[in-house]
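Notes continue from the previous slide.

Worked example: a multi-chain complex. Inputs as given:
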Amino acid sequence: MLPVSVVLALSILIVSIGLWLGVFGIFQPIKQVFLDLSGSFQGVLIKPASLLDKVWRSYMALHDVTVENAALKKEIARLQQEIVHYNEAVIANTRYKKLLDIKETSKIPVVAAEVIGSDLAPWVWSLTIDKGRRDGVGAEMVVLSGAGVIGQIMESSEHTSKVLLLADHNSAVAALVQRSRVPGILKGAGDGLCRLAYVGKEEDVEVGDTIITSGTDQIFPKGLLLGTVTAVDKGSGSDLFQIITVKPSVDLKRVEEVLVQIKGGSLVEGLH
Amino acid sequence: MRNALVVILTGYLLMLVETTIESLFWIGPVRPDGLIVLVVWCGLTTPLPNGLAAILGLGLFAEAFSAASRGLYIFSFAAGYLMVRYILSHVITPYLWQRMLLVTVVSMICLTILLVGTGGADLVWPWGALQAILNGILSPAFFFVFDKIKAYSDRLVPINRKRGG
């Protein structure tokens, strides 16, 4: 009996390390079939739960106020995105006013998707959506919701995809302070907030500043809304960088529908 | 082997519920989590090597439901299971409060491995500790459910003791 247990324990150790090293790529198709199967179960489970959640939030918490509030929040989110675009356009226009050859930014097709699950670990900020490779969704594609960016696609199966959210420890996005054009890296803090890292102490960043994508990471297009600065700590004398806390523009725990920006080949199915 | 299957299937159902229904109604880093309680229950009811095989299956399923670093769930669940087996070989834990304490301790170990491995070491205190305590508090309810599922599976497919079950 003991040798079998020892063999199993060793197998577990080898499988754990192997998974970490990513040497089990050969089993990826099996995992994707499993993900698709689980995704369909999650899709079924989330519908009544989501409905119950909506009922709870709208009827139990004063129906009219909630409905009006939701409409206003949508409007604010839309207007915020518009303001960001306008500000960006004004700043770019001023900076490049002498240039006559203005390139028009290419429009990237998007796919609308519904959130069907969250991560098993509550401290890991990721979501599962109901669109996968069949809809053209793949790794490193940008995911948007309401007012701005929420994250990027980590991996996709045929019908589902995992989204790594901005607030996760493993998330990093090349960012820019819209007002002062100070660059930095927006990193997830794991607590629902983000930190704008590698911003020198002498740089001009204030509470309330809007943070947008800088486009230098080759993943997120320039000018997309990321969040707002909520705290700036210049640190002590020996610190090289400021500690800048950024609140994402979207409530990442309450996202229900998202848009995925499709990169690469043209699409037919699932395009909106 | 049947116990192992019960553990894996119960774990899969728990994962489905925790990633869909529970996440809608529970906000924040601490929430009811039956998976580590299931690992402890598996340790209490299923000896080696079947228990370890169940933990391997459970860990592989959990990997698919999470964006956490690969291999972490399998490793932490196995560590939790072996810890329970080791403790059981030295101490008998017949009382409920002892089992609740066991769940809290094993949860703390598993969560520390998971949180540190996913880059969230700063969440070990206080969130990891609070989650471990919550797991301990809720464990009697989860144990009750797991025992019922096991009893139901025993009724469905009775063990043939003459053949050595």
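Summary box: Chain A has three helices and twelve strands. Confidence is low (pLDDT under 50) at residues 98-106, 265-272 of chain A.
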